[in-house]
Write a structure and sequence with these properties.
The structure is a single chain. The chain is of the alpha/beta class and 145 residues long. It is built from four helices and seven strands; from the N terminus they run βαβαββααβββ. It has one domain: 3-Layer(aba) Sandwich (Rossmann fold), CATH 3.40.50. β6 and β7 form a beta hairpin. The longest helix has 13 residues.
Amino acid sequence: MTIFTNSESETEAAGASLAADLPDGTVVALYGGLGAGKTAFVRGMARGMGINAHVSSPTFTIVNEYSGARELFHFDMYRLGSADELFEIGWEDYLSRGSVCAVEWSENVRDAFEGNEIRVNIEKISDNGRKIEIDGAPEPGAYKE
């Protein structure tokens, strides 16, 4: 599926739309350059999941946890060099909790995914315009123990 947005709020709305029906235990792998709108998309995901929280990039903390009607783990892999580093910080523990995981800079940890993730590529096509490509479908309970 391809979506074109023309503002940050439209990018957030795309995230909200995707997340509203995501089953718990889904991994959403986000790809895109600096300033593409990955965090805005995750902000929308939180809203779509019934989470009322200030969503910001976890660049320095690696992961932010948000709770509300459901639970969302927001990862930023910008500072990690490999999937091994992600496993060292407890990736499998997060997956076993059965919440939705949104992972920015997924290209840095591609080996951590089992092929069941939803892939979201956000491309900046103008100052405000974004091309968002979404593909993949989670296998229900793929990451739950």
